[in-house]
Amino acid sequence: MIASGSVDDRVDDMLHRLGCRVTQPRREVARLLASKRGAFSAESINEELPGVGRATVYRTIRLLAEAGVLCKALLPDGSPRYSIDHSWHHHHLICSSCETVEEFRSAELERLLCELGAEIPGRVLGHQVDFYVNCPDCLQEEGADKARSTADNGG
Amino acid sequence: MIASGSVDDRVDDMLHRLGCRVTQPRREVARLLASKRGAFSAESINEELPGVGRATVYRTIRLLAEAGVLCKALLPDGSPRYSIDHSWHHHHLICSSCETVEEFRSAELERLLCELGAEIPGRVLGHQVDFYVNCPDCLQEEGADKARSTADNGG
DNA sequence: ACATGAGGTGATACTCGGTCTCACTAGCGT
DNA sequence: ACGCTAGTGAGACCGAGTATCACCTCATGT
């Protein structure tokens, strides 16, 4: 608990820099987000913070997403997942089984997208690239399941 | 009205090929979809077919999307738009102002995505590439607006 | 330290897109 | 023509998110 003060300080700092009031609920949401690994739904944050109102959780997430602190990825069904935006520009690897979202980057891809963008009629504002995958964890589990059922058949 | 029989026939044919019953509601939904240019929301179809139940409209759209007859694009906010899937594999140009969705294809992009996919840990199931744009129509309108306001300032 | 007021909060109602339920209907094989 | 069963439609329900509005609290000026 000795070092936790610095996390609070950084969170307060960030909220300050966004030009908004540093309130207790925002602090709580931001701290929880900062502690997250990987992508999460707004609702999961809401559930983990019963002391903070739903509206406030959603408002704060929107605030941080608009400020570029969070980045938003869409699952194939369109439901959004948020994650801390660690790197300037990146794309997503979305696991179709466990719905985890990983970042990935490729300079070559950016270059090609930029080239393609130049040929597109109209003005290109941005792009989004998502790979839908089975992540290694899910593959391993799948493999384990298969091995189990084979063992069952065999014995 | 003389030629409309052939559209009906093609719609019936398609429904048959999907291995499902050819019912009046499905026919109506499929015919309306066939007449659509560009992308549309499920709700808009529902509104245009007051004689067909909401559940049936959504069910039919899902059916056709799963069969690959329709393809689904997600707007930046995650709301889905459907369009007739004219070509085997394509990506989308989504206009951020008027929300129209256009298809685009690039062999080079596919090649690179395939290469990148090979390096991704896990199993790649698919990918999605969207360009967010201002379409030429919206740009033109914007230009017209600007010209108007300049004229106002000048006169 | 205290008053002040604008920005923020939270309970709750609402919206929107979509699915589920279930009694009823109609397509289609016989 | 009959009967089975897939399909239908009204409406309840759901999940994610927004709007409303009385109340609260942070930050500032004195």
Structural class of chain A: alpha+beta
Number of domains of chain A: 2
Strand segment tally of chain A: 5
Q: Main beta sheet of chain A: strand number and arrangement?
A: 3 strands, mixed
Number of helical runs of chain A?
6
Give an overview of the whole structure:
2 copies of one chain form a homodimer. In chain A, helix 3 packs across helix 4. Chain A has 6 helices and 5 strands, in the order ααααββββαβα. In chain A, a hairpin with a 5-residue loop joins strand 1 and strand 2. Chain A has a 3-stranded mixed beta sheet. In chain A, strands 1-2 form a two-stranded antiparallel ribbon. The first copy, chain A, is α+β, with helices and mostly antiparallel strands and 155 residues long. At the A-B interface, helix 5, strand 5 and helix 6 of A face helix 5, strand 5 and helix 6 of B. The structure holds a DNA duplex (30 and 30 nucleotides).
